[in-house]
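Hi F.,

I've been meaning to write this up properly since the lab meeting, where we talked about keeping a consistent format for the predictions we share between groups. The idea is simple: the sequence comes first, exactly as it goes in, then the structure tokens exactly as they come out, then a line or two of notes. No screenshots and no reformatting. I'm using this chain as the first example so we have something concrete to point to.
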Amino acid sequence: MATRGVSLHDVSIALRPFYFAVHPDRFARNPRVRKQNEKSLQVFNGYLNDLFPVSNTIRPTDVRFSILNKENNDLQDIDITLSGTDPMRIVRHALESCKLSTENIPVQSFSSAPSWAPSGSTPFAQGINVSNVDQDLLKIYLRKKKREHPRNDLGSVLRTSRDDALRKSKEAELTRLTLKDDIDDIKWRTGAKDVVWQMDWAESHMRRCLGNLSRLLDQATPKVKDTVIHALYKNVLRFGRGSFVCCDGSIQLGADNVPEQWEQVRLFPHN
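Output, unedited:
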């Protein structure tokens, strides 16, 4: 039985360029497109959520988005068919429909051990032509291998350390890329000149702050949203200790505050 080696989080990260291209806020001046993309995103995300785990009620469906064609600076309609239970196929289809890069799509890993293989068996059993091997002998061998303890030698320790270092390096690179996407999204939505992190905390805390600000923009009333955008437009947004307007006109939001506290200090001046 094959199992997917990706999570809903992996899917969300792979779809970041797509979400950025179809985000309803990009079409604030076109209510029809904004409403269409918002509704289509709800259907699109709902279908993906039903794949983790796969729902019994899942049904194929079509969604339409409008994106900006950079070649002629005009709107272009794209239709995406949602079908099947392979999330990475849907991710690739969505990215290719928008002519976006697919090189960052994670590779799926599959497990295809025979149904009779004991739990925790080694990869030795995978890929063997069972018709040429006596199954009883193979079962005995696998049980014996399972009882054996892995050798605690220097070579295995070094290999484990190397694999762990490579994994952490890839995770750090992925964090940097997603953080850059988050910053670019805030700059695009508000017109901010730059976003600066002035804390010595981990970058994951900056992502949390950017996410809080993004949700504030999503959930705020039109008046409050316009006020926030007006305050950040062409200014530097800083995350540090405390929320206030800096002497140079830049805006600082408290990294240890929540959006409600940002609003309570009346950081953003009203017209």
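Notes:
The mean pLDDT is 77.
The beta strands are 61-69, 74-82, 194-197, 236-240, 244-245, 251-254.

If this format works for you, I'll send the rest the same way.

G.
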